[in-house]
Structures are given as structure tokens and as C-alpha cells.
Amino acid sequence: MTANSPDTAAEATASSSLYEVHKKIYPKAVTGLFATWRWVLVWFTQALYYGLCWLPWNGRQAVLFDLVERKFYLFGLVFWPQDVFYLAVLLIISAYALFLFTAVAGRLWCGYACPQTVYTEIFLWIEQKIEGDRNARMKLDAAPMNGAKLAKRALKYGLWGLLSIWTGFTLVGYFTPIKTLAQEAVSLSFGPWEWVWIVLYSGFTYGFAGHLREQVCKYMCPYARFQGVMFDPDTLVITYDEERGEPRGTRKKSADHKAEGLGHCVDCGLCVAVCPTGIDIRKGLQYECIGCAACIDVCDQVMDKMAYPKGLIRYSTENALAKHWGAKDIVSHVARPRILLYSAILVAITVAWIWGLATKPSLRVDVIRDRMTLAREVEDGLIENVFRLQVMNVSETRQRYAVSVTGLERIALMGEPIIELASASNKNITFQVRVPPESAGKGSHTIYFDVKSLADEKVAVHEKAIFLMP
To answer: SS3 breakdown of the chain: % helix, strand, coil, rounded to 5?
Structure first.
């Protein structure tokens, strides 16, 4: 069979038909209750993201993940590599919270707080201010390139680029002190990894929010694919009331739609025009729906104009539509077994995590034996072991600690027993521990190092070690 035979061409046509040709989506601007809430979340999340890294705390950055010093600062808390457990629990809490919110009200995270949604909203706002609303943008894209079009595109892409660079710069400012990073920015003297992450994150922000947009939600985000297993017939989702809306059709405002055999849907298509992922909610719940509720806002406005009741498109549940429940019945079915289970687990883990943070010790001590010198005889016939103590002051104040050792008769600690540490710092100190040969028999024996704060006797560590007798 030749490459150009009819059968080969048919196969190629069949193969190509498996892939949907991408069509650019031009979301129409919309106002309303849910649009207002989306912008409230945009302002809140971005004020938090861009502003938190500039907030001072005790002479340092309030939130800083210092990878070089291997310390994470979170306001008054200091986390060391040994505290990775707290990060793991925080991730578990976030996962359970996502499961809970999704089971209760669908993709609230996607519609209102996901960075992809937030930055797409900001980039779209810039695009609308420069190029106009939906029809103007479509017309501009179809027009040949000229001076006016070039100027608008240059301004739009330039503002997108500046916002993206600022976003990447801010991200790195949580890992390198932001003021240090700002000084480096003046001379563009960033370190290699700082350059990499600023460029990468800026590029991802620009590409995802400016160009890929809904494709990230539809094809790249795994949450869109597994969200269905978290839904049930009592999950609040954006729904189209087919029983009330069908059959749809255009009509005059003064017309009697019942006499014409029509439902409340006037088939204006605005619910599709405002959708950022380009779906038609009237076809039922689809995995592409991010729960932004833009279709609810615009449909309610159409219902107002037509003097019909609002809520043709609304937040509801599968059971509520089928059984004609009101708001009271919907709320009463929120407390179902899976929601109670998710809530109980989430509360238990959160309480345990907060308790762990509240009781986190402000002093840590690790005792490490000097492997080069296991045991040796020194002057006066004493047996000596060498230990290295790593003392970590996890508190936000300078501390002085006293070190002592117990466990064997006439045991003695050689070296300066007072250690002074700055706030959130650590120090390695080597100590020689000596005992008379008659204090213990041959072999290993348990001893204890006691490190106590001179300012607060409650801050103390009792650490076990092994003393070897030759």
C-alpha cells in the first residue's frame, strides 16, 4: 500500500479527528455577586503574596525559607530541618481541607483562589482594558497587523511581562531575603539559582495566565480529572435547571413564553460567552467547569431583564434538582457521613498540629560521639571519651546554657560548661568526659548530658549518650 493511497489518507483523517482543534476563548467581562467575590479573593491573595515577604519581624523578614542557613522563619516560629514533620502534617491538612471543600461545594478552590484562576483574571483584566471587551478582542485578532494593533499588543505583552517578572522576583524573595534580592536587582547580580527561578516562574506565569489559560485547567491540572470521585448527589455545584429552562428559545420580553411553549432560557448564549473555559453549562456538569459562577451572574442579569425569577443557573445539588429541594433542605444534607468523617479527621489533625507548634521545644541538643577517638587513657589514669554536642537555640532571644554530665561515679566534664547562643542559631561544641577506671567495668555505659537555660530552668534537655570503658 502506497503512502498516498486512499486507505492511508482515510486512516490519517480518522487519526486527526481524534484531536480537537483548539479554539481561542474570549471570555466576556461580567459583574455580579460572584464576580465581586472573585475580585475580593484576587486582591486578598495578591496582597498576601506580594506583601508578606516585605513584612519585618524581630529585625528579620517575617516569612523566609532560608535554604542556605537551613532555617524557615514564620513570624515568631523558627523551623529547622528536623522540623520537616510539621511541613508534612501541614500538607496533609491542606489535602483534607481540599477534599472537604470539594465534597461540600465542588471546585471552590479552582474558581476563586487557585493561582491559575487568579492570574488569568488579572491578565484578562489587563487585556480588556487595552483591547476592549469580547467583541473588540475578536475583531482585533481577525484584523491585519497595523500600527494600532502592534501598539496595543506591545503594551499588553509588556504589562504581562512586568507582572510576571514581579511575580517571579517575589517568589524568590521568600527564599532569599527580599531586601537583599532588591539590592541585587539594581545591578542584576543575582546568584545562579536566583536567576533560574525568577526566569522560570516568570515564564510560567506569563505562559499559563497569558496564553494557555483554560488549557491548563482542562488538560494539565490533575485536580480536574479526579474531582469527580469527591462529588456525590449532595455536593453543591453550578447547575442549569433544565426542567425550568427547556425548551429554550428567543422571544420578546412582552411575549407569553408559556403560550409559545418555551422555558425561561432565552438561548442568549451569554453563559457560554462569559465562561473562562468555554463550556456550555446547559449541557450539564463537566469536568472543565472550574466553579467560578460567572454564568450565574450573567444569567441572573438576563432573568432580571426578562422579569423571570433568578436562579435558572445556580449553585445546587443533583438531589435538590431532582427532588425540588429548597435552600433549607440543601443545607440539611451537608452534614452527611463523608463530610462528618472529613471534618473530624481535619479537626483532629489541625488541633494536633497546633498543639505541636505550641509545645515545640525552644532548645534542641544532639550528642554525637567522636568516632576517631572511642576511648583513651589520659593523665592520672583517667579514661576519656570525646563527644560533640550540637546545641540549637530555636527561640527568638539570645540564650546562655549550662552543660553538665551524669551517669557514672566521679564523672567529670572537661571544657567550658557555659554556652552562649544568639537567637535562632546553633553551635557545635566538643567536650571531653573523664571517669576514673574504677568507676565502671569494661564495656559501654549510659551517661546523660544535661543542657539547661540559665534564664529559664524549664528550658532543659536531658540527652542520653554511651561512655566506653576499654
So the answer is: 45, 20, 35
What CATH architecture is 363-469?
A: Sandwich (2.60)
Do 260 and 251 meet the contact criterion of CB atoms below 8 Å apart? yes
Instruction: Please give the grid coordinates belonging to residue 377.
Output: 587513657
Question: Judging by beta carbons within 10 Å of its beta carbon (0-12, 13-18, 19+), is residue 282 exposed, middle or buried?
Answer: buried
Which has the minimum average pLDDT: 6-10, 100-104, 137-141, 386-390? Answer: 6-10
3-state secondary structure of 45: helix
Whether cis (ω within 30° of 0) applies to the bond prior to 247 is yes
Residue 20 binned pLDDT confidence (cut-offs 50, 70, 90): low
Rounded to whole angstroms, the Cα distance separating 330 from 235 reads 9
> Hey, CA dihedral for 217, 223, 225, 227, is it positive or negative?
negative
The pLDDT of residue 225 is above 80: no
Residues contacting residue 35 through CB under 8 Å, at least 6 positions apart: 294, 297
Length of the chain: 470
Beta pairing class for 412-414 and 425-435: antiparallel
Rounded to the nearest 10 degrees, the angle between the axes of helix 84-105 and helix 337-358 is: 150
Per-residue cell: 233: 448527589
Please state, in angstroms and rounded to a whole number, the distance separating the CA atoms of residues 40 and 281. 24
Q: What is the torsion angle, in degrees rounded to the nearest 10, for the CA atoms of residue 313, residue 213, residue 90 and residue 335? A: 10
Helix runs in 251-293, H state only:
270-273
How would DSSP label each residue in 286-327?
A: -TT-----HHHHHHHHHHHHHTPPS-SEEEE-HHHHHHT--H
pTM of this prediction?
A: 0.83
If we measure between CA atoms, which residue out of 91, 112, 92, 101 comes closest to residue 231? 101
**Residues 194, 177: contact at Cβ < 8 Å?**
no
The pLDDT confidence band at residue 14, using thresholds 50, 70 and 90, is very low
Residue owning grid cell 411575549? 255
Task: Give me Rg for the CA atoms of the chain.
Answer: 33
CB neighbourhood size of 265 (10 A): 25
Helix (H) or strand (E) run with residue 249 in it: none
Beta pairing, strands 460-469 & 412-414? unpaired
Q: How many CB atoms lie within 10 A of CB 14?
A: 9
Domain boundaries, the chain: 232-325, 363-469
Q: In this predicted model, what pLDDT tens digit does every residue of 403-434 receive, in sequence order? A: 999 999 999 999 889 999 988 888 999 999 99
Within 10 angstroms of residue 33's Cβ, the number of other Cβ atoms is 11
